[in-house]
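Table S2 (text version). Query chain:
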Amino acid sequence: MTSPPEWTTRIEEWRSDAAALSYEEALQAVDLLLADLQSDTVPLADLQKQVVHGEIYLDHCDALLKAVEANVVTLDPDSLQPVPESTPDDA
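Corresponding structure-token output:
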């Protein structure tokens, strides 16, 4: 979905605002936007803006999840010791 050029500043502000939020706060913001969209109170002219705003929050949530996932240690089920990360050379 492409956004009109005049949205550039607003989108940058939304990204900056989202970056300051925790995962839970960003997810709550998505829930609030979704509730607005489902209530049919959002004027058609604002619909795309709300969708883009929600996508920014979801992108932030995804980035936070990927960062946590990268730090999760896999344990060997028998010894409960950390399993070394495999590298392409291990194959």
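Notes on Table S2: The first helix runs from residue 8 to 19. The CA atoms of residues 27 and 61 lie 7 Å apart.
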